[in-house]
Amino acid sequence: MREKPKMHTCCMCGKPTPNYREYSPLLADLFNKSGYSMCDEFRRKGRIQTEWENEQSAERFLICPYCESFIDDPWQYEEDEDEIECPECKRTFKVEISTVRTYTTRRRIEDMPDGWNGGGF
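-> structure tokens emitted (121 positions)
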């Protein structure tokens, strides 16, 4: 006789499910629980959503999520744009553009003390 699986509650919809996944010890401490349960329906919906979006996250290059071609001149797009058209496949996709700022600082030569000859500090 086959043993009945232990039932849990889906964290998304509240339906009973035998699916249970344990967190790593670090996440278990962080969330203060040992794991979570998600029914087959929500697991399927999540997988479909993730596969459909084909998200290319935090890339250094602009990549079309449909044809996966690299967009040659990404600097032509502004940070406030949220959709662009791929030059290759002509499909429109969502985009989040962020710019990383870096700084270089140096002393001004005119502020150096009198008699300074470029030697050590």
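The first strand starts at residue 8 and ends at 9.
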